[in-house]
Amino acid sequence: MSSTSPRIVLIGAGKMGQAMIKGWLTQGMSAASITAIDPHPSEELTTMAQATGFALNPSSPITPADVLILAVKPQIYTEAAQHLKSFIGPSTLIMSIMAGKTIEAIARGLGIGVNDYAIVRAMPNTPAAIGRGIAGLCANPCTNDAQRARAQNILSATGKTIWVETESMIDAVTALSGSGPAYVFYLVEALAQAGTSLGLSPDLAMALARTTVEGSGALLSETSDISAAQLRINVTSPAGTTAAALDVLMAHDGLQPLLTRALTAARDRARALAH
Question: Which of 14, 25, 145, 236 has the most CB atoms around it within 10 Å of its CB?
Answer without folding.
Answer: 25
